[in-house]
Amino acid sequence: METGNFLDNWCQTANRRRFELLKAFVKTIKRHRHRLLLFVDKRLTNAIGEGLNIILKIVKNRASGFRTLDAFTDIIYLTVGGDMDIPGQIPARFRAT
What we know:
mainly alpha; 65% helix; 5 helices; 0% strand
């Protein structure tokens, strides 16, 4: 059985129950259905992007005196380490270039 069909059938069955908390949970599942299926099918999360985002926020706060993008880029590499391949952390199928 396909994952999407299973989830839809489960939600339909759960909605027939009298538990209001379960019905609220089903609403949440339906609202985020596409994300749930994407994770189950492709194991795709935003964890790498969020991790890089935290690093960039920390660096941005630390680099308040730098006025050029090159200086900001340099402080990013100094913070995360020169050997880290930031674009390499993004799976090839999701890269813009």
